[in-house]
Design goal:
Layout lengths: L4 H11 L5 E6 L6 E8 L4 E7 L2 H16 L2 H4 L9 E7 L2 E7 L13 H15 L4 H5 L7 H17 L5 H12 L9 E3 L8 E4 L2 E5 L6 E3 L15 H14 L6 H23 L2 H20 L15 H14 L1
Helix pairs in contact: 4-8, 6-7, 6-9, 9-10
């Protein structure tokens, strides 16, 4: 049974001594958390959340570690707000956590237009421009480009083992992982779980970013891949242009890897269904993979590969292939 907002308010006063709450209401409409919006006497707003299951509890714990890693000094480098931890209290084997409220409105991907896309690109670029040292100092994951490649190969191999991935997609994905130039990038700080649901807007500007549970150093393409699902093809293009303008175009292949990550989300959805032995999820994934295969076949001249195809000496090619084989 969901906890009432009054119960959550009582937990918040226990978590943050001196919190003078004058108004409370439910917030978020269900999901994996019981959540309430609190208003204090000075007019400030706070959120209190209690996880409903182990998955939500794990996510909340990881998010809390990330928020603590994002120190005041690090936050000054961001032009948008990030929530801050205020306090916690135990409740029935888990814990209620109180956060500062971040203002702004969520906008579904289907409603992200060109001006918002530009702001998204700048916001993601700001995250990727943060110094990597604070992530390592906080004990959060720091992945090399090679480790990012290996994780993709692992997903592809596991998905292939189901026997449900169309051959055309397997060939496309395998070719992308074998294209060494695609994986020659400098890992950056990434949010790791960013999506339309993570972003808060005021008009066309991003005012806040939520959900930091996957904060790490990794492939910047991960934070851009979700944009490729936009109905308006101009949205990812504008976002990437704004991103590259801030970042200086240091990663010329970021869009290509983002395309791979976007497509691999379907493979991960299939694996999720097979692990749960949920035939509805498996069937849905198979249908989505079939639709993607049709799209890929209609666009055979657009493989996932480098935007430029440099000429390499035979010895260089053999050396690169040998390194790739050892890595995989």
């Amino acid at each position: 049974m969901a906890r009432s907002h009054l119960t959550l308010a009582a937990l918040a006063t226990s978590a943050v001594p001196g919190l003078d709450i004058v108004e409370t209401s439910g917030f978020g409409g269900g999901g994996d958390f019981d959540c309430a919006l609190l208003t204090t006497r000075d007019g400030s707003h706070w959120l209190v959340r209690v996880p409903r299951n182990e998955r939500a509890e794990s996510e909340q714990s990881a998010d809390l570690v990330a928020l603590r890693a994002l120190s005041a000094g690090v936050r000054t480098r961001l032009h948008f707000a990030v929530s801050a931890f205020a306090g916690q209290t135990p409740i029935n084997g888990t814990r209620a956590i109180v956060y500062e409220f971040v203002y702004g409105a969520k906008v579904p991907l289907s409603a992200i237009d060109v001006p918002r896309a530009s702001s998204v690109g700048r916001a993601v670029a700001a995250i990727h421009s943060l110094p990597t040292s604070f992530v390592a100092d906080s004990g959060l994951p720091v992945l090399s480009a090679l480790e990012c490649l290996r994780s993709c190969v692992t997903i592809i191999d596991r998905a292939a083992a189901t026997g449900l991935i169309p051959a055309a997609l397997l060939s496309r994905w395998e070719a992308a992982t074998e294209e060494t130039r695609l994986w020659q990038f400098q890992p950056t700080v990434i949010n790791g779980a960013i999506s339309a649901d993570s972003l808060l807007f005021a008009g066309s500007e991003v005012t806040g970013v939520l959900g930091w549970q996957e904060l790490r150093v990794g492939d910047p393409a991960r934070d851009l891949s979700w944009l490729l699902a936009a109905r308006d093809e101009a949205v990812p293009e504008v976002a990437l242009d704004a991103y590259n303008e801030v970042r200086g175009g240091v990663d010329r292949q970021v869009r290509q890897r983002a395309m791979l990550y976007s497509e691999l989300e379907l493979a991960k959805w299939l694996l999720h269904g097979t692990e749960l032995r949920n035939q509805d999820i498996v069937d849905d994934a198979v249908n989505l993979l079939a639709a993607l295969t049709d799209t890929v076949r209609r666009d055979v001249l657009n493989p996932i590969g480098p935007l430029t195809m440099p000429t390499m000496a035979v010895d260089d090619v053999e050396a690169l292939l040998a390194r790739t084989e050892r890595a995989i």
